[in-house]
């Protein structure tokens, strides 16, 4: 009797865990499916080339949001990647353990700041003195999220470079910085690059930090000094609006955004896997 | 004989060993073999780890399995309680008969209660000392709740650990030393009243004092249990085992009384190993 | 000068002596960049504090207890938002943890390696999905589902309790919690799976050797051994959920009221900041919002710290206890 109970419980529980795995894994498919279905219908050439029109006027698009996102994310990468990367080099190659622990802890702290709070900070530092919203502020906010990710990836992959490689360079008479620049960093480039791609992909989907930095714009923004439209913010404003047409646009934008982010993620992971396999030889 | 029914424990009926089975070249065994393996092959995927092993383990005796690293002695031991079943791609053919049934085909959880195992490194659960011992008893429903404390005490006494832990049964098992943890694992295995106890190099992670304590307790419990021990320590085999089997490259080279194996081995490979000509 | 040189530790002195000019410059440059990271983080905390000053001076600790949120009369209390943030996150955990740990058990113990890796990859991709996309799906797919089917069913079954009362808006605390739960899956599953994989094989085998079924061995021996890692994953997921803005804002209903019913609309800290910041009526309003941000930041720091600590402890061998 006990045997029967135990054996049934065994089968039931093991099956349940399988169900859990299927349910959680299928969440991704559901999301993709919805976006493909609803977004695919609304995606057309206009989407990529036209500006948004007033609700009710068909034929509008989100060209400005696409360009705007590109500008803001590029700025974020330009600001954040070098800072994160070079800091990572310091942590991995030059720093002593105490300092490294402290800096790493600080970077983790920065990483854990809620994205809306990052937005508040960027607003305080950039928007208030400038007295207007801008792509500068948005780029700055996102760069704060790029820095910790890049720093961690750089440090992680640099420290994985084997001692034998470093010593080989030093033994040939290279100075420390030369050996780092010409041997160690190239050896770690796959991992570091993947980390950077993943980090940048993540911030390209962030909305909250842009809400009061780059704000939004129904038109083109000249340069970096004006409020700038971005895909995530557009999706947000259009989704919560009461207009059918704008909802369609939101789906289309969602599909484009998710597509970009997923492609970047999958590509980065594949590159990383291939790099790791090559290193194992 | 197996353990006679203890008061208060719900008992599984112990079948009498089949007296018509003759035990050929090992005259010390009083009754038929407890376990008999016939033509056992074992595969890890495509690799064959055991070749045609046939061996008999007499009841209430200690049998040692010796041989160099990788010779298959542990693999063979683990087929006896089918713990290898958990390894993906593993396959076993042949027969292992205990009390008239081929254990390779019975319900595995019941088998494992009757054939217990002690592992190379002590592996107590992250629970208290008491709960570690009680675990097997509880899940197999072997005692009423009021009797579990009794069973725990009895098992700890059999494992010669009671006096050292009786005042700290609720403490974590990890608070014990390595040797104590291993005796705990032995007590845990004994708590479910196994008929056979398999020990896979149980002392290899322990110091000499802890080792001798365990060897003493093995000799003390052998009349309640059939013991099969894998060891790479030949002196240990000589000290505790009645019978010894020598494995090499997945084959059983020689199997006989320990005295004979160590003093007058029949096969050259056995002699080479005993005298240390290869590791 | 001689005394200064003596106070510098010996190792540091020889360290600098061994560096050649190029190395010293490299050290300096990389150091400056790293220092800038510390600097910007410090400034962030400072600014948060500074901009909250107004509100902190005015309300003190009562800020955390008061429920009025009245921009017109400059009366601000954080309690409804703290309540909403905590309830949605905890409820989200309550949904996510059983499913996530169950999935992690399946992926680490039962699934063949290839299946396990593929499914894990798919689940981890979920972490890359932007919050606003979750919000999009929540508004158009989840909310109607809740309004038409789930909420009415819950009211029918549990309407007698105070937790399931009220009109079926579709949006609300429960809806937001469900979205959060889905967003937490990848973190719980990924980290718990790692913790379970690291449990030594002998633990499972010890239980099996005593006659345990596969489930008993997993639940009684493997999972407890990994519990620190699993709990760590819970803390980290909680920290993320608390700071989650967009998806929650889109479905929580934006009502700064505390109610027992989880079908009612609510408000979280992140949501109110997102909604009201650009239209803040005056300095006090703004300061109160920034102070909310500070509160949120502090809570997430603590949770993240605890989570990391647990994970570090599990990384040390032999510390299941």
Describe the structure.
The complex is a heterotrimer of chains A (281), B (279) and C (321). The mean pLDDT of chain A is 91. Chain A is mainly alpha-helical. Chain A contains 10 helices and no strands. Chain A starts with a helix and ends with a helix. The longest helix of chain A has 41 residues. Chain B has a domain of 171 residues: Rossmann fold, CATH 3.40.50.300. In chain B, 31% of the residues lie in helices and 24% in strands. Chain B contains 10 helices and 10 strands. In chain B, the strands form 2 sheets. Chain B has a 6-stranded mixed sheet, sandwiched between helices. In chain B, strands 2-1-4-5 form a 4-stranded antiparallel sheet, with helices on one face. The termini of chain B are far apart. The relative contact order of chain B is 0.17. Chain C has 321 residues and is mainly alpha-helical. Chain C has a single domain, classed as MetI-like fold (Orthogonal Bundle), CATH 1.10.3720.10. Chain C has 13 helices and 2 strands. A two-stranded antiparallel sheet of chain C has the order 1-2. In chain C, β1 and β2 form a beta hairpin. In chain C, α4 runs parallel beside α7 and α10 runs antiparallel to α13. Chains in contact: A-B, A-C, B-C.
How is the topology of this model organized?
The complex is a heterotrimer of chains A (281), B (279) and C (321).
Chain A: H1 2-42, H2 45-49, H3 63-94, H4 97-112, H5 115-130, H6 135-159, H7 163-171, H8 176-204, H9 231-239, H10 244-280
Helix pairs in contact in A: 1-10, 3-6, 3-8, 3-9, 4-6, 5-6, 6-8, 7-8, 8-10, 9-10
Chain B: E1 33-44, E2 47-58, E3 62-66, H1 73-79, E4 90-98, E5 101-102, H2 108-114, E6 115-118, H3 129-139, H4 148-158, H5 162-165, H6 178-190, E7 196-200, H7 208-221, E8 226-230, H8 234-240, E9 243-248, E10 251-257, H9 258-263, H10 268-274
Parallel strand pairs in B: 3-8, 3-9, 6-7, 7-8
Antiparallel strand pairs in B: 1-2, 1-4, 4-5, 9-10
Helix pairs in contact in B: 3-4, 3-6, 4-6, 6-7
Chain C: H1 2-7, H2 10-18, H3 21-59, E1 69-70, E2 75-76, H4 79-110, H5 113-125, H6 131-158, H7 173-197, H8 201-209, H9 214-225, H10 227-243, H11 246-251, H12 269-276, H13 283-315
Antiparallel strand pairs in C: 1-2
């Amino acid at each position: 009797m006990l045997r029967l109970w135990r054996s049934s419980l065994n089968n039931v529980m093991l099956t349940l865990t399988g169900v859990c795995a299927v349910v959680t894994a299928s969440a991704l498919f559901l999301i993709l499916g919805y976006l493909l279905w609803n977004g695919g219908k609304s995606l057309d050439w206009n989407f990529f080339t036209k500006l948004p029109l007033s609700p009710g006027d068909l034929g509008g698009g989100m060209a400005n949001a696409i360009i705007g996102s590109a500008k803001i994310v590029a700025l974020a990468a330009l600001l954040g990647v070098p800072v994160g990367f070079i800091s990572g080099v310091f942590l991995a190659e030059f720093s002593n353990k105490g300092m490294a622990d402290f800096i790493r802890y600080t970077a983790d702290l920065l990483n854990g700041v809620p994205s809306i709070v990052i937005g508040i900070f960027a607003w305080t530092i950039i928007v208030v003195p400038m007295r207007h919203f801008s792509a500068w502020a948005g780029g700055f906010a996102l760069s704060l999220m790029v820095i910790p990710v890049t720093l961690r990836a750089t440090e992680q992959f640099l420290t994985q470079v084997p001692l034998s490689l470093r010593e080989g360079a030093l033994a040939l008479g290279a100075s420390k910085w030369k050996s780092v620049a010409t041997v160690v960093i190239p050896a770690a480039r796959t991992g570091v690059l993947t980390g950077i791609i993943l980090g940048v992909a993540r911030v390209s989907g962030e909305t909250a930090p842009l809400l009061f930095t780059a704000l939004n714009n129904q038109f083109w923004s000249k340069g970096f000094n004006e409020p700038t439209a971005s895909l995530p913010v557009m999706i947000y404003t259009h989704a919560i609006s009461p207009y059918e047409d704008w909802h369609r646009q939101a789906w289309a934008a969602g599909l484009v955004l998710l597509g970009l982010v997923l492609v970047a993620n999958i590509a980065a992971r594949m590159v990383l896997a291939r790099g790791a396999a090559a290193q194992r030889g | 004989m197996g353990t006679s029914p203890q008061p208060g424990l719900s008992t599984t009926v112990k079948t009498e060993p089949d007296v018509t089975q003759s035990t050929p070249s090992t005259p010390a065994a009083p009754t038929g073999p407890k376990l008999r393996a016939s033509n056992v092959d074992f595969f890890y995927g495509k690799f064959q780890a055991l070749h045609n092993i046939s061996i008999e383990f007499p009841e209430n005796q200690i049998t040692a399995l010796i041989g160099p690293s990788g010779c298959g002695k542990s693999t063979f031991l683990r087929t006896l309680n089918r713990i290898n079943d958990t390894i993906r791609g593993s396959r076993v053919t042949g027969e292992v008969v205990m009390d008239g049934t081929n254990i390779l085909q019975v319900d595995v959880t019941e088998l494992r209660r009757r054939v217990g195992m002690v592992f190379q490194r002590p592996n107590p659960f992250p629970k208290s000392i008491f709960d570690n011992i009680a675990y097997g008893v509880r899940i197999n429903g072997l005692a009423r709740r009021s009797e579990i404390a009794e069973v725990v005490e009895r098992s700890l006494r059999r494992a010669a650990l009671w006096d050292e832990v009786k005042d700290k049964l609720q403490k974590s098992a990890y608070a014990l030393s390595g040797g104590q943890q291993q005796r705990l694992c032995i007590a845990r295995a004994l708590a479910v009243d196994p008929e056979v106890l398999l020990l896979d190099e149980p002392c290899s992670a322990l110091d000499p004092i802890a080792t001798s304590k365990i060897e003493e307790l093995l000799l003390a419990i052998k009349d309640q249990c059939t013991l099969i021990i894998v060891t790479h320590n030949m002196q240990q085999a000589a000290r505790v085992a009645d019978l010894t089997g020598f494995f090499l490259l997945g084959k059983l080279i020689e199997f006989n009384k320990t005295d004979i194996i160590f003093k007058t081995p029949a096969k050259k490979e056995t002699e080479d190993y005993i005298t240390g000509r290869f590791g | 000068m001689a005394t200064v040189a003596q106070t510098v530790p010996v190792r540091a002195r020889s360290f600098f002596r061994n560096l050649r000019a190029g190395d010293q410059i490299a050290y300096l440059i990389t150091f400056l960049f790293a220092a800038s990271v510390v600097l910007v983080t410090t400034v962030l905390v400072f600014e948060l504090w500074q901009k909250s000053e107004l509100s902190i001076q005015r309300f003190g600790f009562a800020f955390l207890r008061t429920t009025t949120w009245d921009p017109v009369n400059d009366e601000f209390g954080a309690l409804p938002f703290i309540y909403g943030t905590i309830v949605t996150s905890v409820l989200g955990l309550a949904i996510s943890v059983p499913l996530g740990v169950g999935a992690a058990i399946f992926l680490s113990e039962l699934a063949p390696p290839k299946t396990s890796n593929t499914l894990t990859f798919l689940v981890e991709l979920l972490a890359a999905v932007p919050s606003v996309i979750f919000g999009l799906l929540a508004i158009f797919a989840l909310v109607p589902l809740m309004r038409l089917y789930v909420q009415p069913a819950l009211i029918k079954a549990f309407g007698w309790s105070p937790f399931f009362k009220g009109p079926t808006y579709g949006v609300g605390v429960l809806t937001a919690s469900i979205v959060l739960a889905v967003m937490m899956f990848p973190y719980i599953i990924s980290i718990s799976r790692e913790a379970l994989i690291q449990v030594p094989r002998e633990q499972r085998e010890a239980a099996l050797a005593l006659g345990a079924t596969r489930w008993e061995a997993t639940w009684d021996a493997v999972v407890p051994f990994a519990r620190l890692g699993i709990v760590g994953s819970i803390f980290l997921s909680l920290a993320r959920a608390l700071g989650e803005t967009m998806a929650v804002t889109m479905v929580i209903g934006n009502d700064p009221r505390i109610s027992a019913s989880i079908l009612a609309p609510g408000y979280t800290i992140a949501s109110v900041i997102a909604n009201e910041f650009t239209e803040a009526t005056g300095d006090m309003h703004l300061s109160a919002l920034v102070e909310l941000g500070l509160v949120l930041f502090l809570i997430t720091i603590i949770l993240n710290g605890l989570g990391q600590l647990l994970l570090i402890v599990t990384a040390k061998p032999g510390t299941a206890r």
